[in-house]
Amino acid sequence: MYRTFVAILGIIALGTASGAQGQAITSKTDPTKPAEFDITKATATTDGRLTTFAMEVVGAAGASKPSAIGKLEGAKVEAYVWPTKLDPGLVGFAPASGILALAITSHPDFDDTPLYDENKDGDPKNDGGVWHTHWVVLAEDKSCAGGLKVRDVVPGKEPLPSTAPGLPLALDSPAATLVLDGKKVQITLPVTGAGDVAFDAVTAELQVHPEGKTPLLCVVGVRDVASGDLSLPGRVELVK
């Protein structure tokens, strides 16, 4: 799976949308996978201003979170991810710098949404374990167990979105409407030009480098891919 995952990413980076007018992805269930990460369906819609990405799973969405280890180095991350053919420059990253993906993550050992107080306790710096939203730029790295990483950057040396948390990663922490409801995971946020753009859905585990070195944040396990082969068959439906 990892070798295929990486090889297809190269195709995604060069490809374009097919011209279909919106298309959902359905996925076969697999009893060997954790039910909360076993994808059954993925959809995306846009009205030209706000875009909603959603996926459905067999079990209770968000039911499992990583166990805390008490430090950033080596910390685990669970993620629901939508890889897209949107250009990273659209949301403030360097243009054509990798695969732009939207993600919902949980990681109790660090907080990378310093502008927001997700658990509403008055402290915006202790919310990493609460499911929250990121834009990330994915890139190939063979030293990662899953063959992919969130791209390493030097803050101040290349463009980053205004709401990026300051980590040396191509990672943004935008305000977004996040829903975890039964079997459904859903995000709504401002994205222009998303109509008919190709997408897929993935559930994955990531991990921070045990010594805090680069690659800092690796994909270490792919739990499920909605399309089965990351061919991005989904198309964002334009709705009026």
Quick summary of this structure?
By secondary structure, the chain is mainly β. The chain has one helix at 2-14, and strands at 25-26, 39-46, 50-57, 76-83, 99-106, 132-140, 148-150, 171-172, 177-181, 184-190, 198-199, 202-208, 217-225, 234-235, 237-238.
Could you describe the 3D structure shown?
The longest helix has 13 residues, at 2-14. The chain is built from one helix and 15 strands; from the N terminus they run H-E-E-E-E-E-E-E-E-E-E-E-E-E-E-E. The radius of gyration is 16 Å and the shape is globular. The protein is mostly beta strands and 240 residues long. The chain has one domain. Strands 1, 2, 3, 9, 10 and 15 form a six-stranded mixed sheet that branches. Strands 4-5-6-7-13-12 form a six-stranded antiparallel beta barrel. Mean pLDDT is 91; it is low at 13-20. The protein has one helix spanning 2-14; strands at residues 25-26, 39-46, 50-57, 76-83, 99-106, 132-140, 148-150, 171-172, 177-181, 184-190, 198-199, 202-208, 217-225, 234-235, 237-238.
